Amino acid sequence: MKKFYLQIYRHTPSADGEDNWVDAVSLGIHPDMAQLLADLGIVESRLGYVPANQVRRVQKILRLRRNLGVNLPGAVIIIDLLERIEKMQDEIDRLKRR
Predict the structure, then answer these.
(1) What is the enclosing helix (H) or strand (E) of 23?
(2) pLDDT at position 47, please?
(3) How high is the mean pLDDT in each 10-residue block of the chain (98 residues)?
(4) Nearest to 66 by CA among 79, 75, 57
(5) What are phi and psi for residue 29, nearest 5 degrees?
(6) What is the distance between the alpha carbons of residues 24 and 49, in angstroms, rounded to a whole number?
(7) pLDDT of amino acid 26
(8) pTM for this predicted structure
(9) Do 58 and 30 touch, CB atoms closer than 8 A?
(10) CA neighbor of 49 nearest in space, from 78, 15, 26, 75
């Protein structure tokens, strides 16, 4: 009987801001999909690698597509709006601390 093993990758952006790149395949996407995301201006991509600081953005887009069936342009709009809301919430919190 053959045994199969499941590999799970979880990438988090580095805190030190280094220029780290993550293999798109380890994120569960084909390098061509990473290039498509780059061509659309959603994330950067070089030879099938995505910057570590954009991994969460890719993961959110994939989750929206997989779990909710949102198409790619819709997922990008949702992510952009969520990022704007997060920035505004941070600004509100900062202003409240004054």
Answers:
(1) strand 21-23
(2) 84
(3) 61 56 87 86 87 90 92 92 95 94
(4) 75
(5) -125, 150
(6) 5
(7) 87
(8) 0.68
(9) no
(10) 26
pLDDT at 95: 95
Angle (CA) 87 34 53, round 5°: 35
Long-range contacts of 12-17 (CB under 8 A, 24+ apart): 12/52, 12/55, 12/56, 13/52, 13/53, 13/54, 13/55, 13/56, 14/52, 14/53, 17/53
How crowded is residue 75: how many other Cβ atoms within 10 Å of its Cβ?
20
**Joined tokens for residue 89:** 């919430």
Terminus-to-terminus CA distance in the chain, angstroms? 65
Predicted pLDDT at 88: 96
- Measured CA to CA in angstroms, residue 9 lies from 12, 22, 42, 85 at distances of 10, 11, 22, 28
pLDDT of residue 30: 86
